[in-house]
């Protein structure tokens, strides 16, 4: 994508916090599903505001009695609580770098896991189609579609092992989509050299 200045970050709390309450499983993607820079910047604004408010809260209040009883109050305990919080952020960041090519663009960080998997399937599809394979109906050894198959929601997706990443959004594959997933006519007739290179 293009480099652009984000002048209107998403500050609507309903939009930002809807990511937090999504399922981390299936196609919902939890916070990692964010797919535009406005929401990413807006999320950072909200995290910054909440961190400042949380800091002020801890400066001006004493811990509740249940918290004083439940937690250990020592330097080592504070360090361990801080390390636990940092590890949660680290695990979240690792999910972002593995799955999200908006926050971690492939041009700078290499392909995400799903993008690499889909690109490999696409590359083999292009190669075998040139060699004469009928990619719309060929079956693999398990009886599933070797190149194309149906997703759980009925969309046409790349087949084989890459099917688990069926909801990937990448700039090289989007022009091949139609209303029901991948468009077989576009795959047979409209694959462009730049898409092959990018994949």
Largest sheet: 2 strands, antiparallel
Counting DSSP H or I runs of 4 or more residues, the number of helices is 8
Mean pLDDT: 89
H/E series: HHHHHHEEEEHH
Major sheet strand order? 1-2
Distance between the termini: 15 Å
Structural class: mainly alpha
Helix content: 40-55%
Q: Looking at the chains present, what oligomeric state does this protein adopt?
A: single chain
Number of domains: 2
Strand tally: 4
Task: List segments where confidence is low: pLDDT < 50 over at least 5 consecutive residues.
Answer: none
Radius of gyration: 22 Å
Strand content: 5-15%
Overall, the morphology is elongated
InterPro entries: PS_antenna-like, PS_II_antenna-like_sf, PSII_PsbC_sf
Membrane topology: Multi-pass membrane protein
Subcellular location: Membrane
Organism: Toxarium undulatum
List the helices and strands and how they pair.
Blueprint: H1 13-20, H2 37-60, H3 65-70, H4 75-99, H5 106-109, H6 113-130, E1 148-150, E2 156-158, E3 177-178, E4 181-182, H7 184-189, H8 193-198
Antiparallel strand pairs: 1-2, 3-4
Helix pairs in contact: 1-2
Describe the structure.
There is one protein chain. The radius of gyration is 22 Å and the shape is elongated. α1 crosses α2 (37-60). It is built from 8 helices and 4 strands, in the order ααααααββββαα. It folds into 2 domains: 13-107, no CATH class; 111-198, photosystem ii from thermosynechococcus elongatus (Arc Repressor Mutant, subunit A). Strands 1-2 form a two-stranded antiparallel ribbon. A two-stranded antiparallel sheet has the order 3-4. By secondary structure, it is mostly helical. It holds the Pfam family PSII. The chain crosses the membrane at residues 40-60, 81-99. InterPro entries: PS_antenna-like, PS_II_antenna-like_sf, PSII_PsbC_sf. This is PsbC. GO terms for molecular function: chlorophyll binding; metal ion binding.
